[in-house]
Amino acid sequence: MLQTVILKNNYQDSINLMLLTNRINDFDSVIMSQIMMGTDANKDILNNTNLLTSEAQEASANDLMIVVESDDEAIMDEVLPEIHSFLDDLSSNDSASEKKAATSWQEALEGLPDANMALFSIPGEYGASEMEKALNHNLHVFSFTDNIPLEDEVRLKKLAHKKGLLMMGPDCGTGIISSIPLAFTNVVSPGNIGVVGASGTGIQEVTTIIDRLGGGVVHAIGTGGRDLSDKVGATTMKDAIVALEHHAPTDVICVISKPPAKEVRDEVVQLLQSITKPVVAIFLGEKPESHEGKLYLAHTLEEAAHIAVDLANDEAVKANYFEKVDAPEVQTLAEDKVVKGLYSGGTLASEAGMMISEALSLEGLVKQEGYVLHSHGYDVIDLGDDIYTQGRPHPMIAPEVRIEKIEQYAKDSQTGIILFDVVLGYGAHEDMVSALLPAIKAAQESAAAEMRDLYFVATVCGTEKDPQNYQDAVKRLKEAGVLIAESNAKAVQLALLLKGIEITEADKEVKPYAGTTIEVPEVSEKVMELLTTKPRIINVGLQNFNESILTYGGQSEQFNWRPRANGNKKMIKILDALDAHKEMIDAENQKVLDKMKNAQPFLIDVVPAKTVIPELNEAQKTLLHAGPPITWDQMTGPMKGSCIGAALFERWAETEEEAESLLARGDVRFMPCHHVQAVGPMGGITSSNMPVFVVENRLEGNQAYCILNEGIGKVLRFGAYSEEVITRLDWIKDTLAPTLAKALALTEEGLNLNVLIARSITMGDEFHQRNMAASLNFLKELAPLIIKTDAPESEKYEVIKFLADTDQFFLNVMMATGKAIVDGARKDTLGTVVTTMTRNGVDFGVRIAETGNDWHTAPVNTPKGLYFTGFTEEDGNPDVGDSAITETIGVGGMAMIAAPGVTRFVGAGGFDDALATSNEMAQICLGHNPTFTIPTWNFQGTCLGIDIRKVVETGITPVINTGIAHKEAGVGQVGAGTVRAPLGCFEKALEAYAEKLGIVVD
Q1: Are 592 and 829 in contact (CB under 8 A)?
Q2: What is the secondary structure of 311-336 as a DSSP string?
Q3: Residue 378 domain flag
């Protein structure tokens, strides 16, 4: 039985999730589990293991998928607390740090403005575009990230070379820059040797042996395993060699390469022969018979280290560095017994496979299904190959895969020797020896019980300064009966001695170089600056990589990266393309922001809608509605109910049945309020004789309109249309509106709404669900004027009493204010700022400055919140209304922190949740509006300018405070809560914006 839980917008590093998966898989009741982010690649992994559920299929790349197979129906009750505890520990470790991690490139670069390198450990499917950003920010790149397409590696390395930067990787497992250890790395003494290599255990083996020989390394520059392929052309290796040639503290250069393309090897050799510094090189898979010119060619990694140290000490290079290992005092194995190599490092595995194949005349190295040697029963496996690490931690981190293989091979009677490595250092398992010893001891005991010989032979790759303690690791392995050699080459030699096979190495002489040399290029200033200072690193991904950097004197800024656009590849491409136009877009957006910030809204009148909206004064019966365009047959219950009520109010019909027949026949034209400078709450229905507020934005000279608030109870805006509703609408038309109009006429310039709003937000209003302070301030301003009008005393009392009793009265004024502000901001502007958000019960619609009156829509969501007694979420209608105009200008749900008193009512929790909501909303806005400051937010201004780029990039959509209407016509309001705008409409807006700039992405 498969059970799935999706934790929305909960991005976690893949390595941490692999470790967490292993922990959950240890539960007795768990058959199998997988905890990973919802990327397409991860869904493929789930599918391949029959764990892909429908819920997981719908997850985004920023959603955490938890899939557990178990016969226990209540397994999640056991699993989820463990998962939350694990994640809480990660969060507490993060929060314990003095400095908050960056969540964007902008924050990261502001946090470390003089950064010169970016270290990546993020999923490969997103790596190329992020590395390109780093290079365009003039940062050298160290890519621990692998699975980057070859064509992207070629493109990135060409870009880096052009910009005078180093592109180290992809799949750069280890490195040392200015004696600062990076990624999966050992602590090696500083010195005068510079290493350039394929950036895995090859570098680790050579540098740790150099350290144990008393030498030191100043730089170990990783290239990635494909750098010497014919497609890449050794771009990074050649740039690094040139850099070390010009780096004065480097006296010796050591080159480590996996089997290269011949023509590329020749180019590298030509460059090495052209520089002035002594060089030792190893091209794995080759068995050199002599040295060539000034280039010393090694056969093994150990030999390369010995030659480098001699050169660094100005000592003559010996003809032979081979040292015989002492034969162990054990019985020689029978001829049919074979060696099985289980390596966590690919380069060490390749070296072992090469040496065994040479000694036994086997078929040579292969690369298939994790094997590097697979011949006549002799197997050497690279357990770090993709086949073993997809969805699982690297074997340097977690022992599970190697333990499985130990158990498998130990049961095979043909197995005589299990050869393995233990790699120490930062990033590696904190105590791999302890993790492996139980399986080793069990295998030894099982073999002894069956009266057969089984030997374990190991090499420990590390130094005395590594956090795991090199000598202690060696000691405990020896005590467990494991035969230990001081290098990988010696471990292979020892393993073969157990079969009575001795390895020897012939002397090598120096032969003249027969090729030509070239003029060595100059090195860029940026590369020299990297090599002559301590690195200043933006660490994009795994937080643990900061430890070695900071411990040894480097600087780092943690960037808690997550996929752009929820991993949507199309949106990522659009965002990447728009980055090239950032300066222009920002300038256009600033014009919109300035108009919003400097708007001057005044409430100047209350008039019948038909007097200011010509479309309502035509012969054709017309109703305005909330949201983007919609037809009668598409409308949900509450909007239809509001239409019926409006028809009754206008006396187009005498009964509900007549009204519904009129509307269904198509005798009434429907039009969005937004198309005629108006807005309407909930259903938004506005008819010709309904009075509207008139708000004038004196910055731009435009006006906006909104019907008056009906109060509470059964009201038209929520779809009610009883006699009580119509009677109240008549009173609003005949008494309330004329009285307010007369009062406003007594003002000199109307009611200055900026002043009223600024005052009310400091009193706890957010202007969507809570308008109490604003409504009372409105009454405070108008009550003296109402008294002065010539209206009958009874009507004055009724109006003042109604205003005093109607806490939400100001909402409709605020809506007209928002409409006036955004319509003014939309005039003659472009850019990516959202200038309308609205919903009609079916679709959520947005408009942006650039695309004018075009609607970008997606299916609307249903609010979550608190329901009145007798009602549940089943009764709630999908969200509806133009009132999201408040969130468009940064109040309402965007300013939740302004009204902590209302947060529980709308289902947002308490103060901390309100603060978190407003902080989250700030992430998708371009700034803050100083006109409306919020005391509970440290006097920050309200959010200003929702940017579709930020919404799509982060996957954070605006939060809207809203009332909840019953889904059936005539019932009315049944609750209140919050709703999220759907991401799809912002994605459509972004795509439309890109097309305006000529950017089309398939």
Answers
A1: yes
A2: HHTTPPPPS----PPPPPSSPPPPTT
A3: yes
User: Are 348 and 478 within one domain?
Assistant: yes
The answer to whether residues 596 and 944 touch, using CB atoms and an 8 Å cutoff, is yes
Last residue of a domain, one of 44, 79, 96: 96
Q: Are residues 356 and 296 in the same domain?
A: no
Residue-wise pLDDT tens digits, 378-399 = 999 999 887 888 777 889 988 9
Q: Please provide residue 971's backbone torsions phi and psi, each rounded to the nearest 5 degrees.
A: -80, -45
Say which DSSP state 667 is in. -
Whether residue 402 is found in the same domain as residue 475: yes
Share of the chain above pLDDT 70, in %: 98
CATH number of the domain at 619, please. Answer: 3.90.1710.10
Q: Region 815-840: what's the mean pLDDT?
A: 97
From CA 843, how far away is CA 836, in angstroms rounded?
13
What local confidence, expressed as pLDDT, does residue 378 receive? Answer: 97
- Domain identity same for 479 and 378: yes
Rounded to the nearest 10 degrees, the angle between the axes of helix 301-312 and helix 346-360 is 110
The C-alpha atoms of residue 165 and residue 524 are separated, in whole angstroms, by: 8
Side chain identity, residue 285? G
Q: 363 with 254, same domain?
A: no
The structural domain count of the chain equals 5
Q: How confident is the model at residue 964 (pLDDT cuts 50, 70, 90)?
A: confident
Q: How many CA atoms lie within 13 A of 313 on its CB side?
A: 14
Residues ≥6 apart with Cβ < 8 Å to 651: none
Do 294 and 371 lie in a common domain?
no
Q: Which among 379, 210, 351, 195 has a CA at the least distance from the CA of 284?
A: 351
User: Please, are residues 526 and 165 in contact by the beta-carbon 8 Å criterion?
Assistant: yes
